Amino acid sequence: MNTESNDNTGSTDPLVRVENLSVAYTSEGHDVPVVRGVSFEVETGRTLAVVGESGSGKSTVAATLLAHLRHGSRITSGRVELAGQDLFGLDRAGVRRLRAHDVALVGQNAGHSLTPSMRVGAQIEESLLPQRLPRRERRAQVLTLAEKVGLPDPERLLRRHPHQLSGGQQQRVAIAMALAARPRVLVLDEPTTALDVVTQARILDLVAGLSRELGLTSILVSHDLGVVSRMADEVLVMRDGAVVEQGRAQQVLTAPEHPYTRLLLASVPRLEDRGLAEVDQDGTRTVRPRTPVPEDAPDAVSLRDVTVDHGSTRAVDGVTLRLRRGEVLALVGESGSGKSTLAWSLAGLHAPSGGHMLLHGGTEGDLAATARRRPLDVRRRVQLVFQNADTSLNPRRIVREAVRRPLRFFGGRSRRDADRDARTLLSDVALDPDLSGRLPGQLSGGQRQRVGIARALAGDPQVVVADEVTTALDVSVQASVLALLERLREERDLAFVFISHDLAVVRGIADRVAVLRHGRVVEEGPVEAVFSGPNHPYTRSLIDAVLDPSDPSDTGGHGPARSQRPPDPPSDTGDDPVWHDLGGGHRIRRWETGPETARDT
């Protein structure tokens, strides 16, 4: 293969061609199909998005462009070609050349794919080794790549280890490593799933700009249809290993023909939703209005001037909030804003360094201590559901044990009673109790997240901290988990602290929103008031960064980002010089505007 140039923009022949591809793995002597008869073509410089739910076969198809199949799988029919060459006809040396020069992968979580013990500059330089450049030239190339992907102060950051970078910076390093090979094809497998909306927008703009500059052909695998609308020229929709619809992005996303595509699009939360959407199998969409929390509802938790320090760094700075019984308070903000640190302190994983954090309704309501030091009745009243059930559940213990242990710890139940109650809790979260004997790895992502919710409920809590619990889920599974949380809130009068970077999800499930930036609350209020405005400029930037796949202005591939101009400041009507009080519980921290940034006071 010719790897010397990416300048193929004059050619109309497809660079990537997949013809009638079928993949299967063998189980108990029988072939189990994973991909069935998939065909598509991608021209140089174009982006094809492959979408579908978990198990649809989209990642398997994308991996074939690197001549890769999972262990035990094989191609049963078809071809995968790059520039006319059959990739599965390559010998081992050919496959190495393919992955070193022609096709590069940017995965879902750069924090997991980067080597934690190596400085990031050395990892980028390692990607340049197949080019056999002199060391001085390699180092110059590393700096050029770091600048190209927009790493701030690259000479300093390149000397850091991955854990010393933010999620967006880690992903930029991963993109730099991919570009080091000067590839013709870039495979992007859920590249922004774990990123907040502002960082996601920056990464998408970066990839789009580099694709135009370098003439890259991209295959984007994603369940986020907003990302697809922003990036893709063409869309291919898969279900159960087969293609159900494909075509131009704007056509597929704004006027889908297949019922499954309509179902996926209808399941996507929207900023204008004033409640959670209920979607029928034919894609009919009904938004269920939220039942307002009574004004006289008692407080579940109150925070006053809470600070949390990590060594010499102040992660949370003087936060004052209240959460009522039966209420959902959403914490939003970019990575590093302090939202997870604040929530984890509430759950007892990290002690606050100052201020007051009180639980109302416990025998001893002080939450300043870590969970181990809290009285048992207080400890059980605040429970946490983690973002990733894959890592929070013990892979060697059956799911019934995950729920049974807190039942015995908090309730003193016998093993038999705990087993019975565990099955009941699994049923309460809409899981078949017969699944209770399975290991986490034998469940789907949505089922594992429901196990995590059942485990949190085992303590009979008053407050549940839900930390990005739907981030990694397909849109239809996400919708079902959100509906579950809403039902549990109503049935059990639970208060939720709901952390999310998806503001459309927040609009549907939250009663109130607190926006954090650099550890401070910059805006707080009822969800309707916050989403209607006026807003702090930072809040407006978060809202403007949300991508709506049903909006024609957001579709078509590589379009310009929407304006994020801050609104005019509201009048300072409050007595407190730090806050603009707009009434009804809606308040905005004052800010000073500069030529490019807004600085809080």
TrEMBL record:
InterPro entries: AAA+_ATPase, ABC_transp_ATP-bind, ABC_transporter-like_ATP-bd, ABC_transporter-like_CS, Oligopep_ABC_C, P-loop_NTPase
Renumbered residue ranges of the record's region Disordered: 547-601
Single annotated GO MF: ATP binding
SUPFAM superfamilies in alphabetical order: P-loop containing nucleoside triphosphate hydrolases
Gene3D superfamilies to which the protein is assigned, alphabetical: P-loop containing nucleotide triphosphate hydrolases (3.40.50.300)
Composition-biased stretches (Basic and acidic residues): 590-601
UniProt keyword list: ATP-binding, Nucleotide-binding, Transport
Domain ABC transporter, first and last residues per copy: 16-265, 301-543
Highest taxon of source: Bacteria
Pfam families to which the protein is assigned, alphabetical: ABC_tran, oligo_HPY
Cited PROSITE patterns: ABC_TRANSPORTER_1, ABC_TRANSPORTER_2
Family: Belongs to the ABC transporter superfamily.
NCBIfam families in UniProt: PRK10419.1, PRK11308.1
Protein name stated in the entry: ABC transporter ATP-binding protein
Provenance organism: Nocardiopsis coralli
